[in-house]
Design goal:
The complex is a heterodimer of chains A (381) and B (253). By secondary structure, chain A is an alpha/beta fold. Chain A is 71% helix and 9% strand. Chain A contains 13 helices and five strands. In chain A, strands 1-2-3-4-5 form a five-stranded mixed β-sheet, covered by helices on one side. Chain B has 253 residues and is α/β, with parallel strands linked by helices. In chain B, strand 7, helix 6 and strand 8 form a beta-alpha-beta unit. The relative contact order of chain B is 0.17. The chains are: A alpha/beta (381), B alpha/beta (253). Chains A and B meet through helix 8 and helix 9 of A and helix 2 and helix 3 of B.
Chain lengths: 381, 253
Amino acid sequence: MEKMETTGYRLSVEGKTGEEATIRLAGRLSLDDLEPLMADLKAIPGRLKPRRISVDLAGVEYLDSAGALALIELENLASSLTLPFELLNVSGTNHGLLTLIDREALQRPPLRPESVRPAVVENLGELARRQYRDFLEIMSFVGQLVVALAWSLAHPRSVRWEDVKFYMKRAGADGLPIVALISLLLGLIMAFMSSLQLKQFGATIYVANLVTLAMVRELGPIMTAILVAGRSGSAYAAEIGTMVVNDEVNALVTMGFDPIRFLAVPKVLATMVVVPILTVYADLFAILGGLIVGITGLDLTAFTYIQQTKSSIRVFDFATSLIKAVVFAMLIAGIGCQRGFKVKGGAEGVGTSTTSAVVSAIFLIILADSAFAIMLHYIRQ
Amino acid sequence: MDSSSSEPVIVVENLTARYDDVTILEDVSFEVRRGERFMILGGSGCGKSTLLKHMIGLIKPSAGRVIINGIDIARADEEALHRFRSEIGVLFQADALFGSMSLAQNVALPLAEYTDLSSELIREIVRMKLGLVHLVGYDNHMPAELSGGMRKRAGLARAMALDPKFLFFDEPWAGLDPVTAAELDILIRSLNEGTGTTMVFVTQELASILNLGERAIMLHKDAKGIIARGTPAELREKSTDPRVLHFFNRQAD
């Protein structure tokens, strides 16, 4: 006879090798001791090679589903070795628990296999398909948006002007502090870095030209647009996406409203008004940053700096930067709304769409800017 | 008072609903009569929400027709469709109140869209509608500030803003405690008897089906369509289909 003792349970086996084995269990058969218990029980048939197995549960004070699982595993092992198996002295409560466990559930494979990560090529293919479908959906949305905008301009009274004002404040006024700060710093940095090079030629006055041209022509529109994409593009996607998830968009449709006219047009109009203004604002703050560097670091006078600034840009540059800003605004608001409308699923879907709105907006902004760069190059000549 | 006339005002004819390659409903036909409280019931996945979405014009059928007050809503022109939308009210399962607007603004929205009334008058009507659903004084509250039962009632007030001829309810009792559900039953019955509005309910709530339903159809996903029709009492007592009996007697399949 052998005895094994651990904290929770006590196990003893009676019987000679090759004969009938009786396993006496006592104490707690529970989750805490599941590993040692299973190991001990499963080792017994191999060791004693019995003709039959009986398990006596008379001394068991506590049995939970883990303990019952161990017993069932032993039973399965016994039947796989075609050994007769029986449980003795099973109390009422323990019996209930043992009948509760579905033996079949332990054997049956899952309905669908564990998800396998697809190969790189498969992934790429799937990505390409998704991009194509995305492109089609965006084109479709652009069409709907253009129609809605045209209709709204033809029927100005149908536009929800309160909403337009609301988004103008959110996208514009509320964004002034961050745009100001970043532009100022950008101006400072550009002036400082360029002055290091220009000092060598005694041409520090041209810092003013550099900062102004860089900001007005390129950095002002792009940086402002990226900021607005992050602040407002994401907000539009999140707001509309949440409304989709809440059935609010469905409610609008059943009440006879066109969701694009109701939700997207105000946002697009507001953004188109506000981004050019923010861009000008950004330009001014960058010039101010350059001015600070000019006065404090480069011994220029404010008058000189400002004169130089004025002489370096033409109205044409200014006008094109505003046109860029308007185009960027349409892209930001458009893709933000489109991502919002396409939300599927719950909170996670909204999160994905919001991220996608910002990333896609930035991509489109750079793309549009490249197109502008090429166009303006030929126009300027 | 039950429906006073047996004239069918909603006719669903051979409706087939498909989503990609999956057919959810096949060749479904039934009628709803003027002023009645009509129940669409069935277990999960039977297509009752899909059927409702077809009836309110959110989805176009793959085959068949939905005819409301004589108009085939899938093929109607812009004007007829717009008019149709002003004649129906929908209470969505998630109440679908516009979270960024107050209760009064929510209820006023359809009024502002379809009528030329002054804002004074609209405010009065809104107050009346909120009063109908026992939400007096909550005009300027936001939906997020209200309990589930109150939001359902607010959604109902909005659905009824234009005194629609048809009201559609998608699982209105879902998530309500028994007392609130009973109060909603009383409200619905009084509105139906007071206004004669035709009401269509998609629901699984047994107590309310038996309490309020005048006629019902039961859908089942295996049949992709109707497996039983009649009054709720008939379905519970006289049906020979075990699926119907299990549903009404709350038994396992």
